[in-house]
Design goal:
Elements (H helix, E strand, L loop, with lengths): L13 H27 L5 H28 L8 H7 L11 H28 L3 H23 L3
Helix pairs in contact: 1-2, 1-3, 1-4, 2-5, 4-5
Protein name: DNA starvation/stationary phase protection protein
GO molecular function: ferric iron binding
Family: Belongs to the Dps family.
Length: 156
């Protein structure tokens, strides 16, 4: 049995490019937001949160790079300015004065927002016959589900 794709090999649909660019925007905003949290977290859980935030911004940075390179590989164009990212991102910048627990809650909520959007991107990718992008988004979804659970579990 052969599977037909709706896009030419080495390309993807406009809808997939838009969905991936939305996640690039979310990841770009999160990368800066998590650095903010890493630098400004205070309190009795400073050390583990400082370390966790570093782990998260490194993870987000890797995901951002992977998605941008995927778009380039399929003849798409990743957005690459903060102005563009802020315009389409679902997640918002850090307010700048959050307490440690609010930082954790906000990141978990951001991850859950992205998880829902990733599911939509996976579906669009499958419909376009772009199974590689669908697989990448599925891996990201699994990782963000794990991280949201870990953040939620750290709260009292």
């Amino acid at each position: 049995m052969t599977t037909t794709t709706k896009t030419k090999p080495g390309t993807t649909s406009k809808a997939v490019i838009e969905a991936v660019n939305k996640q690039i925007a979310n990841l770009g905003v999160l990368y800066i937001k998590i650095h903010n949290y890493h630098w400004f977290v205070k309190g009795k859980h400073f050390i583990p949160l400082h370390q966790k935030f570093q782990e998260l911004y490194e993870l987000v940075g890797e995901q951002l790079d992977e998605l941008a390179e995927r778009l380039l590989a399929v003849q798409g164009a990743p957005i690459a300015t903060m102005k563009e990212m802020l315009a389409i991102a679902s997640v918002k910048e850090a307010a700048g004065h959050e307490g440690a627990d609010d930082m954790v809650r906000t990141l978990a909520a951001d991850f859950r927002t992205m998880i829902g959007e990733l599911r939509e991107g996976i579906e669009l990718s499958e419909e376009a016959g772009d199974h590689t992008t669908a697989d990448m988004l599925t891996g990201m979804q699994a990782e963000l589900e794990k991280q949201a659970w870990m953040l939620d579990s750290s709260l009292d």
